[in-house]
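Notebook entry, structure prediction.
Reason for the run: the old model in the group folder had no record of what sequence produced it. Starting over properly, with the input documented here first.
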Amino acid sequence: MRDHSEPGSRVWTGQATNHVQWLLSFAGAACLALGIELAVSSAWTSDGAPLLMAVIGCVLVGLLMLYGTLAFVHVSVKVDDHTFEVRCGYIGLPRRRILLDHVVGADFDPAVTPRQWGGWGYRWRPEKGTAVVVRRGEGLVLTLWDGRSFTVTVDDAEAAVRVIRDRLRLSPG
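New structure, fully documented this time:
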């Protein structure tokens, strides 16, 4: 837990990273490079439709794999006096910000898995709620005022749960 000593305010930050997903980003880069190589070095004839489809396919698959892995290889969580914020990837997108006034509970889950959410990334399942899953392991589960839940995998999730519960007890109402 990192508590930043700002006058009258404490901030908890945490993160989680999945190093295995970097391998998928390299595969995406390889697909992208193959698409570019095909476009540059191939002989374009009058019937270049199959080649064009191959180039577009390789480039699109490469870009999707790169974005999908780089956006969800890392997650950062920040809890201050009023908000809970999750930023995905190293550029912080997608991002989710939840006011602590909208949170009614926080629980520790020692075994969040991509399988229970349908894979890595930003996930929604009607029966479970929303989640940001970048790796298997510990996570925190917020229960929101409308009954929905929000789960995120983050290192030292137990500390985050303690901080959130502390903030919920201190909030008026």
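Summary: Residues 21-71 form one domain.
The old model has been moved to the deprecated folder.
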